[in-house]
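COURSE: Structural Biology Practicum
ASSIGNMENT: Worksheet 4, Part C
STUDENT ID: 0417
INSTRUCTIONS: Below are two proteins. For each, the amino acid sequence is given first, followed by its structure token string. Answer the questions at the end about the second protein only.

PROTEIN I
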Amino acid sequence: MTPAERPGARVRRNPVPSLLTSLLTDHLDPGYVAAAAERTAQHTRKPRLPAALWLLTGAVVVGIVFGVALSQLASGAAAVDRAGADASAAVRAARDRSAELESTRDELAEQVSSERDEALQSDVVGNALLDRLSAVESAAGLDTVSGPGLSVVVTEPAVDGGSSERTGSGAAVFDRDIAAIVNSLWASGAEAVSVDGVRVGPNVTIRQAGGAMLVENRPITSPYDIAAIGPPQRIQVQFVVSDAYLRMSTVAQLYGVGFSVRPAADLELGPAAVKESFEAEEATPR
């Protein structure tokens, strides 16, 4: 009988290697376990600074950034406002200076005319020359005239800051509309014409620059008041059958432009601006 077959005898088994036991029982490498434990310890560790302090610091930094941005924005807006105010002041100063120069020019022109009349009225030749000068000045619109006539008023429609259907901008009246009315008044028998107080004479232009209407480079605004001195009934009868009247009547119906024509009993038009004129002469053959 072998020792293993003896009753009560223990059977000795081969010991299981520790590496195999570790692989079967421990599914993670010890290094991973240590790293996980370290990470868990760091998460559970109390931070050196409370979270509320971090939030407060972040809020302060964000506030400083927004404050600097608002400060720069306010300073930029203030600079734009100052530039706009300076430009407006310069325009007003130039306009006042222009008005002052025009007033001085009118005073000097009146003084020269008075001295000229006194010098030429002394003899027959001087009187004849004075009559010729008076006729030329009247034709050129250099004298102040008054009398009955016709008043034509053209008014821009209210577009509430939008764009007009006719022009695509804030204005619905073209410069050629005003020019057509002026030309038709001349053709209807007008002796003198002005637009918003600006006398229309030779070489006077009516044009648009952007959204501004200019007569002799002077800005005019709606309502455009066109005055014509002459026989009121004759001018009105001929004007209402002109192409300009029919054109403006159509524009008034389609785009809401104001257009009115009425006789005026007493109109006064100032002199037109003096411009240098040139006269062409036929060259004599040699």
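PROTEIN II
(use this one for the questions)
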Amino acid sequence: MNQNQNNGSKAYLISIVLVAVLGGLLFGYDTAVISGAEKGLQAFFMEAGDFAYTDAYHGFTSSSALIGCIIGSALSGFLATRLGRKRSLIIAGLLFFVSALGSMEPEFLFFKHGVPTYSLLVMFNFYRVIGGIGVGLASAICPMYIGEVAPSNIRGMLVSWNQFAIIFGQLVVYFVNFFILGDHIQPAIEEMGRGIAAIHPDAQWTVTTGWRYMFGSEAVPAGLFALLICFVPETPRYLVSIGQDEKALGILSRINGMQKAQQILSDIKDTMTVKTERLMTYGWMCIFVGVMLSVFQQAVGINAVLYYAPRIFGDMGMQNPMVVTVVMGVINILFTLVAVFTVEKLGRKPLLICGSLGMALGAFGVALTFGSVGLELVTAISIMIYSASFMFSWGPICWVLIAEIFPNTIRGAAVAIAVAFQWIFNFIVSSTFVPMFNMHLTEGDDFGHWFTYGLYGIICVVAALFVWKLVPETKGKTLEDMTKLWKK
């Protein structure tokens, strides 16, 4: 007991961080589940009798969750400030759960099962948007929660575990989709007339049932998260902001030990003296850096790979694109661990700069070799380099910086703005990838292939320059130090 009072309890800290990173796992699960389900879903709605399900409809349906992500992240600052971090995460968990069941059975109560119509498509997208709102909330508040409970000397590592959970969630859903698909095949989408698909008989199970199981599988981790988050404490910094200093001290002492807790509480109260500071109190550069970190994390184009991986590998002529996608997921996990275990030693900036240059190398490699006969392996390796470089840099480190770079008094609102920009650019990248990738200057050329990845490569180089010139190093600094840093 005395030992815990002096040093705090690592077990207690780890237990509450593990619950919080479940939100990150759901974030990854929800955004990647579409990769295995989208072909079956497309074929299902192409059989509708009252409208033609075109590529434009499918592009919107595949990315409709991102609209919810924008809404959820924009609301996150308001909810985190008014309801607290914990209750906001409970709401996110419930939204995940409702979305999983609703996406699996969008006909519930109002429509006949298995009959595709325009109204059913609207209802399906409604449930996907609901899940997206949960993702938007979790994406902003999970790293904020971890950043506000973690000691400064290991904060970067613990927030990086949130990104590990996101990538792990994507890997889990790749496996889940793979096992749900089993011996069944994905439908080959061939339009016949007004958008109706010609579906091979062996693919019928995937069209009628497979995609439902894929979306419904999310209900298990969503329900677990919504339940477990009820048992974690509110963050000390939020408790101080609403005048509950005793509760804050109790939580801080359990994590850090009593002596250290009293010092941290004093520092928090010093920066909380003015609770209603305006967003621009610390200058426009503070907000600009946070927003641009979010913009670059998406503009480098990573989600074009993560969301469309099976389709990309299929276009490259791979015999089993789902297997290659799972391999890529494993590599992503391993390189995310590189960031987790080096972020406190190497710092945030070196990892971001190295990752940006590695991504540029991979993107230019894809641009130069995609579609070239005999260079398929080089293209696949380039995609892996591109993806792995993101996983030890922009993937986790962007979330670390967003969680810690803003002063206490504006953190809720500033994080909400930064993460909203992240989802806006996620939507832009995801919705423009297929049209850009399929562009042709002359019939049959590969202009779209090299233009798309060449553009991503150039953006990666610009991102490296941005980090080098404008992003402050936050390694080893307390959250309260951010106030002093931006006041200079």
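ANSWER KEY EXCERPT:
Q1: The longest strand covers residues 191-192.
Q2: The chain is about 75% helix and 0% strand.
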